[in-house]
Amino acid sequence: ISMIGKLIFDRYKLIKRLGSGSFGSIYSAEYNNQYYAIKLEEKNKGQNLLENEAYIMSYLHGPGLPYVKSYGYSSKYNILVMELMGKSLEDIFESFVVKKMSPRCVCNIGYQMIEILEFIHNKHVIHRDIKPDNFVVGLNEKRKYVYILDFGLSKKYRSSRTLQHYQKVKNKNLTGTARYASINALNGLTQSRRDDLEAIGYVLMYFLRGRLPWQGIPVKNKEDRYRKIMEKKIATSAEELCRGFPSEFTEYVNYTRNLEYTEQP
User: Fold this and answer.
1) What is the pLDDT of residue 20?
2) Active-site residue list
């Protein structure tokens, strides 16, 4: 059923469907000549990730994050109203005729991504789903800036009181996206700051190279896919992954791969 034209909370009028994710659908909406993004998650179908996301985004609230306007429920949906953003980096990348970005452009993006993560990590939260689809540019005067989205899988990695990391366990199912996930995350280990940062390295190399060595491996099923991607990542040294590009990228990938579980990057 089309939701276009419907009113949310008796005020936000849905204009256009922008996309969908694990949670449900996202729309642009208008109220009082202001534009917003509205995420709708069906209560009976969703995994109720939206409440977690609303809570985390409101708590984080800072540079590189869209602001949250409101969160609530209707009869059928969990609803998150937030600042409307521009295109995702994945969409921008897909629109290029030649799927490659210049090192200068990638450095500019990478620098902003790492700054945003540092801010989030200092507030005891890890993102756990770093991928080009979850970074967007702002609109109008904010279009030079990168923002991070989608906190449905985010969680605290340490106590905000004692700063003790939560215990590291093994045999966890992968949270996140296999193509960009860290080797440890693919191996079923509890994630911490290092995993977000390692994933950034793969995103940046994806932009520089146009594709990653573990894309398009023939597989039988999801488990097989995760295993083969992990094996290929382990087998691909940072030197090989970043060959032909400034050595700083190799250094970055090696650095993040060698961080300890509780280490402050």
Assistant:
1) 78
2) 129
Can you state the angle between helices 193-209 and 103-122, rounded to 10 degrees?
Answer: 170
| pLDDT < 70: residue spans in the chain | 1, 21-23, 46
Confidence at residue 45, expressed as pLDDT on a 0 to 100 scale: 75
Q: What is the pLDDT of residue 21?
A: 67
One-letter identity of residue 179? R
Structure tokens at 72: 């609530």
DSSP for 153-172, written as a single string: T-EE-B-TTT-PBPPP-S-P
Question: Residue holding tokens 């490659």?
Answer: 100
Task: Tell me how far CA of residue 137 lies from CA of 66, 89, 117, 262, in angstroms.
Answer: 10, 7, 16, 31
* Whole-number pLDDT of residue 49: 85
Residues 6+ apart with CB under 8 A from 192: 126, 157, 165, 168, 261, 262
Model pLDDT, residue 2: 79
Neighbours of 208 (CB within 10 A): 21
Farthest CA pair distance, the chain: 56
Contact (CB, 8 A) for 193 and 264: yes
Q: pLDDT at position 47, please?
A: 74
Residue 44: predicted pLDDT:
81
Residue given tokens 């045999």 in the structure block? 171
**Cα dihedral 237, 243, 248, 252 in deg (nearest 10):** -20
Host H or E run for residue 233: helix 222-235
Q: 82 - beta bridge partners?
A: 37, 68
Angle (nearest 5°) at CA 101 between 96 and 107: 145
**48/40 Cα distance (integer angstroms):** 11
